[in-house]
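User: Just a sanity check before I run the rest of the batch. Below are the structure tokens for the first item. I only need the designed sequence back.
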């Protein structure tokens, strides 16, 4: 309730009997079952001394600082919330990009496997003609282009991660 007070009048309503602070460390004071704190100072389980409370003058309390602290805490919490939401969205985008990259690699592997099949058919012929030689040269250009346009150009194509290559072997 104290954090909701915005003016000195609001503070006076929240604390009609005055605002007090303990003169001893709060952890040394006696705690009652109802959650309130007494003025008896305990050492272990024995009474060591009696401490009082000092009145805090309402004109000393700056409601702006109370509000400022509250606003900072709220900004921190809402900032964390939005950062978490942004992180979730970025993870989703990353997963979708991984899927697209997989499709790209699958396409390249499909092209190369088709060329392999076509070249195997040419090699299995007893006699090759000019059209077969032109087809081989054409396929060579397609292979070069396919390898050069791959996203993961540093790794050999057969070592790249691909959903197609994990489902089906040569």
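Assistant: Here's the designed sequence for the first item:
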């Amino acid at each position: 309730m104290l954090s909701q007070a915005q003016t000195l009048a609001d503070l006076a309503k929240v604390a009609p009997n005055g605002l007090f602070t303990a003169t001893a460390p709060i952890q040394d004071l006696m705690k009652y079952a109802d959650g309130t704190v007494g003025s008896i100072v305990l050492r272990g389980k024995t009474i060591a001394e009696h401490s009082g409370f000092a009145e805090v003058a309402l004109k000393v309390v700056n409601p702006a600082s109370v509000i400022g602290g509250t606003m900072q805490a709220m900004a921190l919490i809402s900032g964390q919330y939005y950062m978490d939401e942004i992180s979730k969205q970025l993870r989703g985008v990353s997963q979708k990009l991984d899927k697209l990259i997989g499709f790209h690699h699958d396409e390249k592997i499909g092209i190369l496997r088709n060329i392999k099949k076509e070249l195997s058919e040419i090699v299995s012929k007893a006699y090759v003609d000019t059209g077969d030689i032109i087809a081989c040269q054409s396929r060579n250009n397609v292979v070069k282009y396919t390898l050069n346009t791959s996203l993961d150009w540093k790794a050999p194509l057969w070592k790249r991660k691909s959903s197609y290559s994990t489902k089906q072997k040569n």
